[in-house]
Specification:
By secondary structure, the protein is an alpha/beta fold. It contains ten helices and twelve strands. Strand 7, helix 5 and strand 8 form a beta-alpha-beta unit. Helix 1 packs across helix 8, helix 1 packs antiparallel against helix 9 and helix 3 packs across helix 10. The longest helix is centred in the last third of the chain and has 21 residues. The two termini are 30 Å apart. The relative contact order is 0.20. The N terminus is likely disordered.
Amino acid sequence: MSIATAPAIAQGGKPVRLILPISAGSGVDTIARAAVPSLARTMGQPVVVENLPGAGGITGAAAVVKAQPDGSTLGLVSNNHVINPSVFKNMPFDAIKDITPISVIGTTPLVLVVNPKVPAKNVKELVALLKAKPDSYNLASSGNGTIIHLAGEMFLDEAGVTAHHVPYKGTGPMLNDLLAGQVEMGVVALNAVSAHLKAGTLRAIGLCGDKRSAAAPELPTIAEQGLPKYNVAGWFAVVGPAGMPPAEVKRVHDAFAKAFTSPEVLEAMKKQGTQIEPGTPEAAASFFRSEASRYAALVKKANVKVE
């Protein structure tokens, strides 16, 4: 948990609880913490970032849903929010109806990485390795049915290979075991592993999106390495509980848009390869519905086990 305040204008202001349904150290967590000081200034209130990982993001999102719709509790969610209804049988809330969409803030590149002990430096070599030893390698994920899991399964499907899926309770524990060599490969947000890639403690096989990242222009995409249909990107959005007054939605939207497009935050995001394009509440609502439909089809194709 971290707290940022805006001196002069936030004194005495009610703190804003910004819930992240993911573990510390993940891509969205890195983004949120980089933006917190600017957010505190634009909102005129202290901002408290709280990580509530678990159940693929359901635990944190449930805390947002149950909160008072007065703008004092918000959530910064990602792809997992609209994937979960297709993965879990007994959702404790409606991922679309029980939240107030405020803004899809931006996108962040995902990258397929391996532990350095894996004798593969690119897609061709990794696919050959997996074909030679079916189900001998572990594919780590941040949880069953998460975007990290689906992105990995989609790679296996496109390449026509298999691996043993090992789900973790968040990106942090997953990264720890990837670094230790307990698992061999996994998909992660680029900004969460940039330091490890530079240090050589993890090796990048390829970016998951349809274009290279300005943060790591030397890294080729998986698509350009022989799997042209492969294209997965991470996104993040701010939401609140259902029933937020329109005036409060506008206030929060404007504050987040201003904070994330401030020079210092844009510079931090650029270094991480994160693209910032804050959208409207109406656009966010439409996007959530279309993404939920898209991922329902992917979950079925990847044969993700429903819990």
